[in-house]
Queue: 4 jobs
Job 1
Amino acid sequence: MKSPMYSVLIVDDEKPVIESIVYMLQKYRPELRVAGTASSGREAIQKAETTKPDIILIDVKMPGIDGLEALREIKRKMPYIMPILTTAYERFDIAQTAFELGVQDYILKPFSREKLISAVDAAVRTLDRSSSGQGESLKHIEMLNSLQGSIEQLFFKAIRFGSSLNEFVPYVQMTLSLHTSRGCIGLLEWEKGMNNAGGGPDEGDQEQRIRTGQQILTRIKYKFTCLGSVSPEGIIFFFPEGGDGKKVPSSQQVEAHLQREQGMTPRWNYSTGEIVEFSRLFTSFQQAKQRNAAEGADDPEYIVVLSKRDDWRLAFSGMILSGDQAGVLRLLENEILSIEDMSLARAAVLYIGLYIEHKRTISTEYSLLICQAENREELHERSVRWFNQLIETASSLQEANIPGPLKRSLEYIELHYALPVQLSDLAEHVEVSPAYLSNLFTRHLGKTFVDYLTDCRIEKAKNLLAEKSHSIKTISHLVGYQDPNYFSRLFKKQTGQSPSDFRP
């Protein structure tokens, strides 16, 4: 039976994108009617109310009301509408909201004609099933199938970064037909220095590593219930808890299976973490990582990097949030880019940079450039550019979102840093509680009130020292420290130089 004619509303703030979608629909799916177009979230809500479309193609990022907020309002009034998201960003929070809104598909820009038509055809099939009485469950199954690849990758990203996993529980349970919310993480990581003679891909051949990893993942999935994600470094698995608690393969089982299936002597480290609730899978991931590190303990540098990378992550996150460009560059060059093994240095940069992008909902293309760096000079130059971009983007987002009390506090400190400034007095000045103001500093600036005040005073002291017009004692008083000895110790701790040796 021929499908009834369905109508489509197209929403994007870029006119060429709208024109391209209209052209492709009219040429390749003329049976669909373009109900209208809109260039903003607010206009989309208005057009949806007047045109009553069956399908809406809507961009996520638009000025004013964004696509997700507009879609939430539209779905409230028209729950039957079939949404298809278009976006340039593959992010956990977008996929999470898409799942909640019953999004039919999630297309990453720039998308091809095939991808667009495929998504629209899937929406039409779902509408056909709904109209023929096959029910709401088929719509959700169709949606899950179309989103499965993206959500699965984001599920593993969330595990790596320690993000909340509660939103993924229904998805994972449905995908694997589970009746449990417990499981563990398994990590199969290629050994450093592995080559073809040892049964695996060359160190630098990332494409070969991924192909090999995908073959292994397919074979493991055939034998065990699991999800998995392949990268050049190896495979991360999620194994659900079985009824008998024995549904997780051991290292010996993995090795024996691969030898039998591929006739290869594998060179890797494979470990699993403890079986835990979904909310604690990051702990299971860390356990697997640590156990693999113990297996590869003949590589001291690898152990050092593994033991320090979480400290680096927190340090970089705080400095980027506070705009400390000099501190970021110092830590990047002295700690990360000084790692002798370039693959380890690259991995550390990626771990930190992607974590910050994820936490601050920032998206750049630098992670790909880091992966493509062919020598240490390129890695250094691209890493510095990436982290500078993160500082700039985080700063602009931060300025746009700083609450009024915190903004007034920063203005007060800028004018009165030379005076004794207490958190309680500042809170009274901006008419909030000290606890609330302290929380604002930590949440929005990544540092405490005292640390921010100290940084402000030290920066002022640097400027005064550069002028060479005042004694150290005078400068100490000018920036709010009555004890020059204390000021000197604090200055050296912050900058690595004493005031007398300071060179701007």
Job 2
Amino acid sequence: MAYVITEACIDEVTQDCIDVCPVDCIHFDENLDRKLYIDPNECIDCSACEPACPVDAIFPDNKVPVALSEYVELDARWYKDPAAVRARIDELKPDAASNVA
């Protein structure tokens, strides 16, 4: 089991979870990513990140709500193909700033 960061993190990126993670398994590329990602291969399932999240975006992978289940795969895939994941995040939740005419 690993923890997963879901949709509520998009455009929040507060990093409170990063501050409490004892193994530094939460990452993002500043100015490129709209959410944070947990590396499922590095996560030790300590759960420190979950209560630290101010937007309740973090779940154990086996308790991610069904409507958000794609985020389990997206968190893992970001470590192999971040550009594809960024594109998918933009499809799932278009950036309000990019839609300004």
Job 3
Amino acid sequence: MKKAYIGFSIGVFAVCVFLIIVLATGVWKDFLHQEEEELLGTRIGTPLGINTAPGASAAQLPARDESLNTRVPMENGEFVIAVLDRESSEGFSEEQYVVYFYMSDAAGTIYITCIKYDESSGRHRRMWSDSTVATRPETVSIFIQDLIGDRNNCIIVTGMNGQNEHTMTIFRNSPGLRADQPYRKIAELQVDGSIIIQEVTRSLAYHQGITTGQSFSIAAYGHDSSSNNILDQLETIYTFNSLSEQYQQANVSRIPGSQIEQRRLRELLSGVPGVFENFLNDLWYYVSPQGTIDTRQYIYFNPDGREIIFYGDETQQVFRWQNSMPTRNGLYVTCQNQSISTLRRALYIELESLDSIRLRAVEDLQFTITVSATWDGTYRRARTRINTERESPIRPAINAVYNSLWGRLQFHDTGFYSLTSGGSAVSGNGRYVFFKVDDHDLLELRPDNAGEGTEGRMVYKVDPAGDSAFVLIRVRLGTTGVQEMLETPVMLTPVESD
């Protein structure tokens, strides 16, 4: 019994000595600090004083709530807008780029900082910070791209400023820079039109790491102030100068715009929120460079439902309409894929005529993904669509009337449908679109009277039933493809014209 007591006393004494050593050396502080560094995420705040489009909610800002955690806590008053992790080929995170602004800053300047692992201290810390020319948090995007062609990626921050001008700020990690300033600002552009990176095809030797590639140029499209036509533009090309290590102006050319009735033009481009959105509210077909309309690629803008539908390469993509800003020649829109939250798209939409628009799309991808369709180009409103020799196997809009269990369903070639039941009483109307996913012909109905708690989009598989009739089978579109739902199929029988 006495031996057991002595052993217990020795054990208690050893534990006390260990605790004294730990407290004296401060190891507990390092342990707690590491735990805090791993668990403490950035405080996510909704920026105040941001002008959003009608119908936009505070939940849409910022756009990536789920990924706004930083490796070190931000300072008081710093509000994070976007976070981008740069990963190595082994899949481990090397650097983190954080875009943020100060709530107390009246100018609204947006900044970028780089968080990197510091081997000397054994933890992550902020290595560098700099300003951008963007001031509208809800329009900001950040991505990495090898603009120069030397496989030394540039950090690119795009957005808009307080004058509703598009901006682009580019940073490059250049050899010979100080450790506390590892990035050099090589471009700072702002224009009242759009800014586009003009990519070129690089050689196989570049992709294999044998040689360098051709530098990308940057095109900025702005209003031609010397012209009386509002739609006339100036295209300014910027190229990279290897001596100054800056993007410099290389060429300026005039792009004549369409001659449109000026009063109507000024109404659409007045900058009043919602005016240009309502103008876009329709189905738009792609127009090829040769001037022919391709019904196999189209975009449907639904500002009331806050969604944009892209159809191309027999694939439909549904995006949530997040924010839109009036510009001098149209609208700037940011949207997010409903199925893949990390896939965002920025749209520069410009008025080309009263029945056509010019669109430039910028993909904002947070991981590697193949985007097959190219959305840049001119689009014409569906109701002014002309007949072409090349017809798609499935047309998005038709002109036909059918009898069904629902009543008489009439499809109009403008993209609208009407459903009547019991004589002339209208029991439903809205928009529709026929499209194709894999080998399935599908129909989507979007009732106009869909309110809160009501499903606003219904998708059906279209199966032929002979004599121009077909059966609608309710389906759900998901990541696994087309899935049939347990609902009674509906037969549509064509109504003979009188």
Job 4
Amino acid sequence: MKQFFGKKSRSALATVLMVSLALHIVAILIFGTIKFVSEALREETVFEAAPVEVAPQQQPEYTVNIQQRNQVTPPPRPPTIVVNNPSELDIPALDIEVDIESASVVSRSAGSFRGNLSEVREMAVNTANLFGRQVEATKLGVLLDVSFSTHGVMTNVIEEIRKSFPDTSIVFVPGCNMHERKSEVVPIADFEQTAAKYPLRAGRVFTTKPFIDGLLQTKGFKRVWDSVKSQGRGHVVFTEIFNGWDGNAGSDDAIKFLVRNGADTIYWFADFEDRIDPALAKKVASTLKSSRAKLIMHDFKAPLGKNNNLESLQMLAEQTSGELFLKELY
């Protein structure tokens, strides 16, 4: 044992131990350094992520169609009324005012349609056949020659016209003269009172009252006269007579009266034997044109347009888009 652990052996062992210790120390230093460096690098390394770009989102477009509606809740239904006899049903009167004047009315006529509800109905265009001619009017005005020559047919003429135009306005004229005279147009209700101011006859010419009195003696005319009077749609022309040979006048004033009262078509019934002044006829045509009123002239006795009246009558028809025709009645 002593030999085995000799000086040389102890020296070799010490060398081995020293080398081993040195190796361990070196290994520890190396691993320690690696550990330290790793920790340091891990703490100091900072990764910056690239900024994320958020794509802008487009707002969806919506088309909204909103209709405004006024929703009205209907009132509750009234209780059902049952009656055995409808005539026994007591219906209260309705106090309703209709403002016709505030309404805007468009028609062919320049005249205004104002008044009660019956006048509102006249705004509807009415078309009818009168003695073979188509007559169209929203408000028809009628001019009637009441001289003795018309007495045999006058009642039938009025009834025929009123059958198709029940609300027509009628003006009774003593003859069919058209020349300068002072005339007045009065309601039938004022006939007797006005007639008292005029003579019954001037020279060879009768004035208005004898003509009307003669008509009232014919069959059925008084009934027609009273009916038109009750409706307030009948008027009579009275005119001054300076010379008995000139005859009565007033046809021009009657036409102007009807135009002022809204007639858009005027039906003139006469024999056209009386004198028509051409200059005055042109003034009447101008009045009718400015009001866009049509003049239809019915000559009931041949020949058409007597006593040099044909040219003036044809001018009146042409200027008013009207008509002159012959239809004999006996």
